[in-house]
Fold HEAT repeat domain-containing protein.
Amino acid sequence: MNLPAYIFELPTILEINLVMTLIFFTLALLLISLILYLRVHKNIQNRRKEKLDILLIDFINNYLFNEDFNKSTEIEVFKTKHLKTPLDNQIATHQILVFAENLKGESSAVIKEIFHGFGLYQILISDLKKKAWYKQAKALYVSYQLDLEIPIPLVDSLINAKNNDLRQQAFLYFLHRSTDKPLEFLDKVKTPLTLWQQIHIENGLKSFEGETPDFSRWLYHEITTVVMFCMKMVAEYNQYQHIPILLQFLNHENHEIRQQAIISLRKMEVPKMMSILIENFPEESIQIKQEILITIGEIGTEEHLKSVAPFIQQEESILKVEYLKMVRYFNPNTFKKHKGDFENIIHDKYV
C-alpha cells in the first residue's frame, strides 16, 4: 500500500490506527457490496421462479386437459426454452410434486410422463449416484412421491449411509414402493434406527394398503433398535401370537429390550408377565423398576405392590412418586392418613 510521505512522520500509534482504519473500511465496503450482490441475485432468482412457476402451471394444465395440445412437440419446446439451469429443474420438479399430490389415477400417470419428458428422471438418477447426501435424499423423496421405479442397487447402497436423513429416505422409498413386503429392508439394516426414523416408518405403515407384516421376523435382529421397534409394532398391531417371545425378553440381557418388552406386554394387557416382573424387581434398574410400578398400577394388584415395596429405597425419589401413586390408587385411605409419608406407608402397610 503506497501511503503519502507525511503519514510516516506521524507517531507510531497513529500510523497503526490509520492503517487499521483503512483495512476495516475496505472490509466493510466489501461486505456491503457482497450483501447487495446477494440481495440482487436472490431477487432475480425469485422473479425467475415466479415466472417459471406460472409457465409450468399453464403448461401442465394444458398437457392434462387440452385435447388439442401437441404434447410431444410442446414438451420439447418447453424443455429447451425454459429448463436451462439446475434451478429451473428444481422449480419444475417442485411444481410437478405439487400436482402429483393433488392428482390420482390416470392424471397421476400423466404427471410422471411430464417428469420423464422434461428429462428430470435422468437428472434424478444422476443425483442418486453423486456423493452429496442431500441430493441423494431429495432424489429418493421425489422417487417415492411420484411412484418412480429406480434401480434397487442404488437404494440398497444407501440403507446404511452415514447420514440419518438419507437412510430415512431410503427406508421410506422401500416402504412406499412395496406392495407386499414393506419392511424387507430391515434385513439389510446394520445401523441403529433413530427415533425419527422409527416414527416415520410407523407412520408409513399406517398408510400401507397391503397385509400387515409379521414383526416377529425381526425380533432377533442384531440391531437393538430394530428389535425394539418391532416389539412396539407387535403391541401396536395386536400380534398376540408373539406374546411368548416378549415374555422371554423380560429376562433378556439387554436393558433396553427388557424395558420395551414390559411396555409392549403392558399395552397388550398380559397378566402372565406379573410374576416375572415381581421376581426381577430387586435386581432391576430404576428405569425398569418404574415401568414395573406403572404396570402394577395398570394390570396388577395390591399384592404385587406389597411384594415390591421393601425393595424401594428412600433415596429413589422417582420410584417413591410412582409408588405413592399406586398406594393412592389401591388404598386412598392409607394415603390420606399419612399424607405422602413414604416410610410410614411402607411400615404400616407392608411390614
User: Anything to note?
Assistant: Residues 81-177 form one domain.
